[in-house]
Amino acid sequence: MRRESNPNAPSAEASANPPSSNPSSGSYAPGRHDRDDDFINLGEIIATLLEYKWLILGVSTLAVAIGVFVALVSTPVYRSDALLQVEDKSGAKGGIAALRDVEAVLGDSTSVTAELEILRSRMILGRVVERLNLTVVARPDYAPIIGSAYARRAGNADEPAAPLLGLSGYAWGGERISLQSLEVPADLVGLPLTLIALEGNRFRLVDEDDIVIAEGTVGEPVNADRASLFVAELLARPGTRFNVVRRSEASAIADLREAMEVRERARQSNVIEAAFTGPDSTQAAAILNEVLNAYVRQNVEYRSAEAESTLKFLEVQLPELKNQLDTAEAAYNSYRQTRGSIDLTMETQSMLTSVVKVDQDIVILQQKRDELRQRFTAEHPQVQAVDSQIARLRALRGTLDKDVSRLPSTQQTALRLHRDVEVSTALYTNLLNSTQQLRVARAGTVGDVRVIDNAVTAELPIAPRKALIVLLSGVLGGLASLGLVWAIRALRVVVEDPETIERELALPVYATVPESKAEEEIDRRIKRGKGMSEGELLAVTHPDDSAVESLRSLRTTLHFALLGADRGSVLITGAAPGVGKSFISKNLAAVLAQSGKRVIIVDADLRKGHIHKEFGLNRAGGVSDYVSGNAPLEVLLRPTAVPGLTVVTTGQIPPNPSELLMHQRFATLLQTLEALCDVLIVDAPPVLAVSDAAIIGRLTGATLMVARAGRHPIGELEQAVKRLGQGGVSVKGFVFNGLDLSRQRHRFGYQGYHYQYKYSA
User: What angle do helix axes 346-373 and 281-339 make, rounded to 10 degrees?
Assistant: First the structure.
């Protein structure tokens, strides 16, 4: 047979030199790996992902499945949109262009920002809520989670769908209800009610406690003690439930505002885009159109509000001026009838004209002042300006009155009466013309906003976006799985590589022993009661196994570990049970014997020792029997099928194993056995379980601890080393057992832990 080595692995001879315990050598000191802390070990990351690939795949698949389910059962949301234009009314347009004198009454254009707020105001939305009766909500009661999705696919306009799984109380598609009015007491406003369809086109309204509130027939008003309602239409199977709520106006307006979106289409474009989203495509367009109509009506009303106010004022003044005119004409005619015809001189006629003009101006200004006082205080600049004009005209009138007083009495009386007629006629005519103009202005007033596009609902819903949901669920599932892996790794604070032991404990790892499938098969046969009477050890039956190759490396290393020792014995123990110390002990003994050395292996685990089973031997006639004086030394030494390998069993299980190990006869036994062999291997109980290992360690030349991959927290190993140190036992190093070569992370970035040998003919 010819043995070939892996070209990528170091030679076995090179690995035979154990790491030095001197920190200056840089073999295993903690500071050795500090330079690697700044680098990301991509290989380890990839290996970890591959190690947990099924977990990652499972979580991601579950997330995608949940995403698909959510996308299928989510209620679709439709979007209806419309366009409005805010016109710039810098000047009068249309039918008002000729009414320059009332242009100020009509006002100026409103900014787009203000119009956006008006569109979302309670004034507008309140009218929509009232007109469309949005305070009353009545919907079919669908089954949880899947009910609405199933109803969308199973329902039709002719008849309700059959119930699924016998759940006849739920709606399953095709149900319709038209609840035109619902009035309830204040204590029921906002609370969910249930309307149940009955036989004979009847229904029953119940509260949360299933207490009947009202009962009636479709198409007939119902007036009960606690509710008044009118159901115009009800299409459902008997027993089908509908969810009914009578909301407050404030709540309905808030929900309407939440579903609306208004914005300026483009900066300074004066074009407003309004949108409404909801689960009902038809209702979405209807609500948005009603909002637009209410907004346009409000705008027109606002544009004509000031003209309407002025018109009302003038209509109040017209009858008074008409009475004044009639009175003045009657007085003038009566005077002329009494005095006969009176001819006014040129001077008198000129005075009359001036007085009439002044009186007209005073009255007009007084009317203007009365109108201004409706909006402003007496300290307003416009009011004060009018007061100043009135004061100047009254001063002029005083001058004219002095001139009139110099005329003859007949001329004075005739001038005064004629003046009253002229002034009243002029004022009445002027006011009547203004009234007619304002009436025309009011009738021809249009708003400064107009609807460009009425509300139209898109055929396809805007939500849910199924492809995006599935994609995001996959991404979130992947991230969640990575987070789960990170959490597992963070919580799993066990030693998984020998580098951690060297870094944290500053102790060398003499060998890294991989897992062996063949050894697992041997253990299964032993458990089934098929002992190895012919010495069926892994080192014998599978000499080419990777674990055996690692033990051969340990054999060489052990030679150097015992050079400075005054005894040729080795204690092999572990921090806790189940780490494979017996496997290491027996197979190390076998490879030592195969190298031509005389080896004795002592099973010093007087509590649970089982090496005798693995060699097909009886327990009796072992350590406990010799120490208690019940068996001679010759009985203890039992040869095996491996030449040069002798086994000393535990003997009968004693009630006081610690006391026996502390007996002088046990120390004498070890000294005697050391003299009979080249290497004495003692298999001891776990350190943290009992104190036996510390007792035995003082009697041996070297102590090795076995650590198993993925089994120990680093603190456990540290405690075990500390426990032995307190007992005066110095641990030479570790044997790292159970390394899983199938784990991909040990194929990336880790070197020098394992050596493979292949045998070929």
Answer: 150
> For 494-506, what is the mean pLDDT?
89
- CB neighbours of residue 751 within 10 Å: 10
Angle at 498 between CA 496 and CA 501, to 5 degrees: 95
- 340 vs 597: CA distance, rounded Å: 169
Residue 105 inside a domain? The answer is: no
Domain that holds residue 685: 2-18+508-760
pLDDT in tens, 588-612: 999 999 999 999 999 999 988 888 8
Whether 333 is covered by a domain: the verdict is yes
Three-state SS string across 353-392, please? HHHHHHHHHHHHHHHHHHHHHCCCCCCCHHHHHHHHHHHH
Query: pLDDT tens-digit profile of 735-751?
Result: 999 887 765 444 444 44
> Is residue 501 in a domain?
no
- Say if residue 629 is in the same domain as residue 738: yes
Element (H, E) at 511: strand 509-514
Instruction: Please state the separation of Cα 35 from the chain's center in Å.
Output: 40
Would you say residue 161 lies in a domain?
Answer: yes
The CA-atom distances, in angstroms, between 215 and each of 194, 198, 204, 211, 221 are 12, 10, 4, 11, 10
Read off the pLDDT band of 636 (50, 70, 90). very high
Beta bridge partners of 278: 78
Which of 573, 584, 592 minimizes the C-alpha distance to 680? 592
- With H, G, I as helix, E, B as strand and everything else as coil, classify residue 329: helix
* Span 610-622, pLDDT tens digits: 888 878 888 888 9
Judge contact between 455 and 281, C-beta under 8 A. Answer: no
Compute the distance between CA of residue 431 and CA of residue 317 in angstroms, rounded to an integer: 8
Q: Per the structure, how many domains does the chain have?
A: 3
Do residues 257 and 310 both lie within one domain?
no
Residue 538 belongs to a domain with what CATH number? 3.40.50.300
271 beta partners: 85
Which stretch of DSSP H or E encloses residue 594? helix 581-594
Same domain, 427 and 525: no
**How many residues in the chain?**
761
Most distant CA pair in the chain, distance: 177
The DSSP string of 430-462 is HHHHHHHHHHHHHHH---SEEEEEEEEE-SS-S
Last residue of a domain, one of 251, 283, 315: 283
